[in-house]
TrEMBL record:
<feature type="compositionally biased region" description="Basic and acidic residues">
    <location>
        <begin position="471"/>
        <end position="481"/>
    </location>
</feature>
<feature type="region of interest" description="Disordered">
    <location>
        <begin position="436"/>
        <end position="481"/>
    </location>
</feature>
<feature type="compositionally biased region" description="Low complexity">
    <location>
        <begin position="1"/>
        <end position="17"/>
    </location>
</feature>
<keyword id="KW-0677">Repeat</keyword>
<dbReference type="Pfam" id="PF08238">
    <property type="entry name" value="Sel1"/>
</dbReference>
<dbReference type="InterPro" id="IPR051726">
    <property type="entry name" value="Chitin_Synth_Reg"/>
</dbReference>
<dbReference type="InterPro" id="IPR011990">
    <property type="entry name" value="TPR-like_helical_dom_sf"/>
</dbReference>
<protein>
    <recommendedName>
        <fullName>HCP-like protein</fullName>
    </recommendedName>
</protein>
<feature type="compositionally biased region" description="Acidic residues">
    <location>
        <begin position="18"/>
        <end position="37"/>
    </location>
</feature>
<feature type="compositionally biased region" description="Polar residues">
    <location>
        <begin position="44"/>
        <end position="66"/>
    </location>
</feature>
<dbReference type="InterPro" id="IPR006597">
    <property type="entry name" value="Sel1-like"/>
</dbReference>
<feature type="region of interest" description="Disordered">
    <location>
        <begin position="1"/>
        <end position="80"/>
    </location>
</feature>
Amino acid sequence: MQGQYNPQYPQQQPPYDNDYDEQDNEDQYSEPDEPDDFYAGNAVASTYSVDQYAQQGSAATQSNRAPSPPPGPLLDHSHLRPGNQAALLSHERTLELYRANAKKTQDPDLQFEFAVFMIDASKSLPIPVETAGNVMEVERAQEKRDELIREATSLLKRLADRGHPASQYFLADCYANGIGTVKNKQDFDRAYPLFVLAAKHGHPDAAYRSGTCCENGWGCRRESAKALQFFRKAAAALHPGAMYRLGIAELNGELGLSKSPKEGVKWLKRSAEHATAEFPHALHELALLHERGIDNVLFVDYEYSTELLAQAAELGYAPSAYRLGECYEYGKMGCPQDPALSIHYYNIAAQQNHRDACFALTAWYLVGSPGVLPQSDTEAFLWAQKAADAGLAKAMYAVGYFLEVGIGTQPNARESTSYYKRAADLGDKRAAQRLRGGSNQPLHAGGGSAGAHAVLHRGPGEDSGGGGGGKNKDGKDCIIM
């Protein structure tokens, strides 16, 4: 399972009753007292169809928050049609055109789009780096950003009060991410009831997020039974994250369920059929299960396992891409040894800061691959440094050695010692030995790239290894020190 939220503030028990009852008053939020510019005239207070929002929005993956607004093109702004010179308009002028267009309409969907646009714009507004001479400029930029967020959340509240499920969900998502909240802290006490309202209006993402709140006690009591109810509601709408969560719960006996591998695999298969870039996890989990098999439930099938990993990797899932990189490097799971494919999949994972994949590319760059990857000590050092900065101890040791000897970078004894100390603090024995002066000479005669291989500490037997290309020019595995 993936990691979970780590809220920045302690969750308080809400003073209200959050029981999930379809007969509850769905319009529990009173209308705002302040004048409503957007609803002057005929206020629209009905519940709107959410079919178009079923696939929209960011949702938690095993309680992992995804960014909001959702990845990819947010909205179609073509209806604005500000003119042929639109690309030359200033950011503020574009915003004013959008605001004028939104105020002319009573269409809640267009007003919702404008609110989302403002939230998105607030994230891209440039904030200068504060110096002694520009304090006022920084404050003005912050105020402009805060004002955009206030305007957007105010509009979202009005739409949410009138039963617009996409607004209820998006506003809850903002609160859950610390947008429009006090001191920009996550506020699940305000997010959870809005998730529940949107779920009652048939919003699958909201039902899933309500389930994660109930599972973890975010803004509500921790209740597995209620979490299951929400997950099943979302799964009935084919939400891949909810189906995956139910599958893991059945496999492991979580959320008050008895262990049932057969049911768990069924849910995972359903989730895999509807996998998206946001929820590719069932593909990866099924691949791992087919790699080892489950007695009387799932047979071992390496070919199908690698096919599932490839599907997940193409959706951008880093753990699957890294696993395939290993398979094609070492010839695991029936895969041929193929440098091009290995480097391709390591690259997919490394671009998402997968630290083992970054370290794998270090080894590939040290030796290169004819026609695939040019040899480059500089690239090897940079990828090792990226893996080290992500917390990989053996990468810290490698960077320390590169800095000590001068591989891909200028020698720097002080920086080298710093990386050795970081690696030793994480339990790397070789780094501790290096600090004690146990080896003051390069690890191989002549030093350079040939000597660097011994510091990589990689091999096909390391399931969690550093990945990528630990071979000499004859294609043989380098000796691990």
